[in-house]
Specification:
By secondary structure, this protein is of the alpha+beta class. It has 5 helices and 8 strands; from the N terminus they run αααααββββββββ.
Length: about 200
Amino acid sequence: MKWSYIAILFVLALLNPPSPRQDGPSEYDKCRIVLSSDLYDKEAPTFASYHAVAPEVIANAKLDLKSNPIARMYRTVLQGEVAEGPNFAGHYRVAVWGCGSSCAQFAVINLRTGRVITLKGFSSTSLVYFDNDRDFLPGTESDDLGFRYRSDSKMLVVIGDINEDESREGAFYLVIEGGRLRLIHSTIVKKDCEKLRRPH
């Protein structure tokens, strides 16, 4: 009985050889990586084109929980951000928080009014295949890799797959005007890598 069991295992091993070992990322993964050079766009607007006044000191800023559904849902995160003061366009704060691996959600807070501002269709960004580090639009005050902004500019750049949608992958230029965010320019990255996918 023991020998017949071993013989069966031997035959199964011959019929199902182990898959070849994968060292490092696949060709598909290498193709999918988005570099700073992929995001470069000579038609893109500049931070200087949307100048804002110097950051204000706003005492006792409060979060307006009725201004946006996001405000109630993420009140603890946003209240902590309000306490940090302005980092964008004079009297605004860009707030960023995680939503999973390589994923970030964001909102802009008007520190004068406490109003939480979002842009429809731009609730999160994913950076799974992005490797732009700090080479893309250097010299900003943003701490998060998926965002570029300055305290003296009204322009905010969001980088990544918007709402984890690969057809909306690249750099997206937003401007805050009249208390609203508006999309003014998009640099879409197209990666034709499907033919390199590993066979299943």
